[in-house]
Design a protein that fits this description.
62% of the residues lie in helices and 5% in strands. The chain has a two-stranded antiparallel sheet with strand order 1-2. A two-stranded antiparallel sheet has the order 3-6. The protein has a two-stranded antiparallel ribbon with strand order 4-5. A hairpin with a 2-residue loop joins strand 1 and strand 2. Helix 2 crosses helix 17 and helix 8 runs antiparallel to helix 9. The N and C termini lie far apart (72 Å).
Length: 503
């Protein structure tokens, strides 16, 4: 029996405290939308446009279209070779159609073609990241709305600091991730410009129609300056994408650490639901339920941060256009960013938040002390520093006697105050706070109700922030749909026009 149990440990994934499960990878669709696919799309567009612009004859255009389609059909067979470079793709065209087909290469270069391919591939990945971020942000926003009334301790310097609404706390991260979405949209505007026709540095003597090429490939326009299009922007783009990835990674790890600190508690008020691979047990310590998906997301987010920083180092101190720092469509940085966003979405759906335990935790410590000082000044004109001193002395008195805020009485507050007032002639002789005011100042719910500034956790402000966050999310969803639809329409138009050329 013991032998059977020991043999079962690896199967169950009980490999000790350092273990956390690897996420399953989705199967790659076939045929993939890789360099081969996009080089095919560029060749289709070149053939159509150059035929229409009389750079190729009608007969050449039709014949070249058949050759392009033959090469694509062969490459789309399972196990077939799918060349990823211009110089390795072209021999397949020549083999299928003779050297004459290289006429479609007029005014083109590996530089502008492969830069275009990399941008097209990253564009698809960026839209997938945008979709994942919208989904995760919606999960987070829904969770915030569900927990507007959940009172929790917030921490500074790792120490309980103030009571807050769980909804207010989570809304801060909604805002953070929506800023990340804004960065994606801004980057997309700069990314989604066609370099085709830039050739290498200064364009070409062939009168290529750059605008039509951009339209066929779903771009919003052309990268106008040909030197910038092929040399400067391709080196700049990975750094901007790295900045987006860094921001998302840091938001992830920050939120994870907010949750993880509760795992040091014997009775956490927030943790992961067990089951579904969310947690795993220790091979040695039966009581442990290790937060596997938190560990995995934090690890992957930190690894992503390293990749993002590496983008700047690759582009550093080299001439524009060098291969070291150029945008590469087969890089994993955008996919890895999408992966950690999806992991965070899973974490949010797996959270088990215990409002009663959170309130109990709040009432075990003196997070209300600042409110006592504030009320002293707000209602009785006691200078804040004097009120702060009084509240601090309350904490010292209570902790020395193991008294919680709930247990602390008005008579004890009077006792502390008299000792302070006796040494300060500027203070009233008796405690100006009423019993009701002290009770309200100690109540976490009362503290939240009495917040008076814009953006605070009080209900009226929360309604405004929820509405604003939902409005931004809806706008982001609409932006994504418009961007995706434009790309789909362009691809459909290209394929439709190419099919006409094949007739």
């Amino acid at each position: 029996m013991l032998k059977t149990m020991l043999l079962a440990l690896p199967l169950l994934g009980l490999l000790g405290s350092a273990y956390f499960p690897e996420p399953a990878e989705a199967a790659e669709p076939w045929p993939p939308r890789d360099n081969f696919f996009w080089l095919g799309q560029i060749n289709k567009a070149s053939d159509i446009i150059n035929t229409d612009e009389n750079l190729l004859t009608k007969e050449e255009g039709r014949r070249f279209a058949a050759v392009i389609q033959k090469v694509l059909d062969e490459g789309n067979k399972k196990g077939a070779e799918r060349p990823s470079l211009v110089i390795t793709f072209e021999p397949f065209l020549i083999k299928a159609g003779g050297p004459g087909i290289t006429k479609i290469h007029a005014g083109r270069s590996s530089q502008d073609m492969l830069t275009t391919v990399s941008i097209l591939r990253q564009r698809e990945q960026l839209l997938e990241l945008s979709a994942a971020l919208n989904q995760m942000t919606e999960t987070l926003l829904n969770l915030a709305e569900a927990h507007e009334g959940t009172l929790i301790p917030n921490y500074t310097n790792g120490v309980q600091a103030q009571p807050n609404s769980m909804g207010h706390f989570l809304l801060a991260y909604v805002d953070a991730y929506e800023r990340d979405q804004e960065r994606i949209k801004e980057y997309y505007k700069r990314l989604n410009r066609s370099p085709m026709g830039a050739t290498v540095l200064n364009g070409t003597g062939w009168p290529l129609n750059r605008d039509r090429m951009a339209a066929y490939l779903g771009f919003d326009g052309i990268a106008y300056n040909t030197y910038d299009a092929g040399q400067v922007f391709p080196q700049e783009a990975p750094i901007e994408m790295g900045g987006i990835s860094s921001s998302i990674a840091i938001h992830n790890t920050s939120l994870i650490q907010e949750i993880m600190q509760q795992y040091a508690q014997p009775r956490p008020w927030i943790l992961l639901k067990e089951g579904n691979g969310n947690t795993y047990v220790s091979s040695a310590m039966p009581q442990k339920r290790n937060p596997g998906i938190l560990n995995r997301c934090r690890t992957d987010s930190s690894t992503l941060l390293g990749l993002a920083v590496g983008e700047a180092f690759r582009a550093h101190n080299i001439p524009a256009g060098m291969a070291d720092g150029r945008i590469r469509g087969n890089d994993n940085i955008v996919k890895d960013t999408t992966n950690v966003v999806n992991q965070m979405n899973r974490i949010l759906k797996a959270l088990d938040i215990k409002p009663e335990r959170a309130l109990e935790e709040l009432n075990l410590d003196w997070t209300c002390s600042q409110e006592i000082a504030d009320v002293m000044m707000r209602k009785h004109n006691i200078p804040f520093r004097s009120g702060h001193h009084f509240a601090s002395e309350i904490v010292t008195y209570a902790r020395a006697r193991n008294i919680t805020p709930v247990e602390f009485t008005y008579a004890q507050a009077q006792e502390v105050y008299r000792s302070i007032a006796s040494a300060d002639d500027s203070l009233p002789r008796e405690l100006p706070l009423t019993p009701e005011e002290l009770r309200e100042a100690k109540d976490p719910a009362g503290i939240i109700r009495n917040r008076a500034v814009k953006g605070g956790p009080q209900h009226d402000e929360m309604k405004i922030m929820f509405a604003n966050a939902r409005k931004v999310l809806n706008a982001n969803v609409a932006w994504l749909k418009n961007a995706e639809d434009k790309v789909k329409r362009a691809e459909a138009k290209l394929n439709e026009d190419f099919a006409l050329l094949l007739r």
